Amino acid sequence: MVAAGDADQHSVAERLGIKPDMVVQEIGWDEDVDDDLRAAIEEHIGAELLDEEADEVIDVVLLWWRDGDGDLGDALVDARAPLDENGVIWVLTPKTGQPGHVEPSEIAEAVPTVGLSQTSNLSVGDVWAATRLVPRSKSRR
Q1: Helix (H, G, I), strand (E, B), or coil: what is residue 72?
Q2: Which residue from 101, 71, 6 is spatially nearest to 44, judged by alpha carbons?
Q3: What gap in Å lies between CA 94 and CA 125, rounded to an integer?
Q4: According to the lineage, what is the superkingdom (predicted)?
């Protein structure tokens, strides 16, 4: 039997567009991350999350980001480097009122300068929110 909380976390992995067997990299891990979300994603993909040192082609990057972590644009450039051409970056930030909260405008300002587009936002727990970033579509000829 699956506990209600497990089902909720499992569906969060699906809401993030993460499918079984995808290669998922985690950047910015610290002790404040949502371990239940991490575990649910690992269970869903059937593998561990890769760390910042991974050299595989990545389907999804989970970028844990807090106020004071540095330059978001630089972090996005680094996160995008190993990303598959159809890959997705989820910027996970503390919600309003939580320590380390990042203003949405900071994300909105960094995204276009690194060739990404912001497509959606999700709540992924009591503390964390997620912003979906994808490569900007190339102009059609």
Answers
A1: helix
A2: 6
A3: 10
A4: Bacteria
